[in-house]
């Protein structure tokens, strides 16, 4: 058994998440507060013990570990040679936008979606072309809207989030293949960000886009960083099985200097994928219990806030439309009055103005504290609004 309950004091460690005022509780940015998988810790320490920290290369073991993990855990088969190291999924996405589209092109995304997608697209001079997901208490693809956006003559690229952040949707094989068929029909290149794939609920399997009938035409970005909380190691993998496309992508990532590892990126990733399976399975059960705690707590104390049905991620997506017209104003109020720091859904566009995102990848005591602050803060917000 691994220990996910013992708190780790991250204050004063230059933690982005915990660099907060005294008394604040951060439940926003997507990293976890748990001790790293022991096998990963041992691999990192062994590397540090070499005592020489010069330039690193990417060994064959990196591609082999990535290929083996996705074969055994997710039934997606590709060669180790199809794997390109990158310093992160976000750097990969930004430079894929550059090499797979032109300035002024449309890039289709389902919204609400991870806000950094917008930066990766717009900072490169392209246009975010939103295809809003339909919402009826759960999220669904609006197929007519998607096809219209893909058919636009200026659309050259689509970035898919699978599983989807922040809504927690896990697209099934039929949905993925329908997306692929539409992209092929309209000549649109697809890039799939699958960084949350290992964080499904314990009884839920995700379908890699690369395992579908259209997978060979896509660029798929994966990493151990989200599931094993290794973001600061800055390592990810870009998988491209079609040789010409892979060579194009490899040249682009190398040209922009985002394909060389730091001292610990490869060691941490390989150790996680080779030895971290049992730790991850226990983590997913713990996160599922945290999710149930939040669902039960809100159902009893604040039923006006609706917990959106999700099958993946540790980021709960809460429908606050019944208590606030503007989730950004609500989140500002909560932080000022209770110290709870969560994310307003407005930054994810789409219908995000009626939602908040809450990170439950922390000790159960913190989750309980966060929910108490949330309910207390919402009650005070409603009182201030005269409701």
Fold and architecture overview:
By secondary structure, the protein is α/β, with parallel strands linked by helices. It has two domains: 25-36 and 277-384, Aspartate Aminotransferase, domain 1 (Alpha-Beta Complex); 41-275, Aspartate Aminotransferase, domain 2, CATH 3.40.640. The chain is 39% helix and 15% strand. It is built from eleven helices and 15 strands. It has helices spanning 38-48, 60-74, 89-100, 116-122, 143-151, 173-185, 243-255, 265-275, 277-301, 327-338, 364-384; strands spanning 25-26, 83-86, 106-111, 127-132, 134-135, 139-140, 155-161, 189-193, 219-222, 236-239, 306-307, 315-319, 340-341, 343-344, 355-359. The strands form four sheets. Strands 2-10-9-8-7-3-4 form a seven-stranded mixed β-sheet, with helices on both faces. The chain has a four-stranded antiparallel β-sheet with strand order 11-12-15-14. The mean pLDDT is 97.
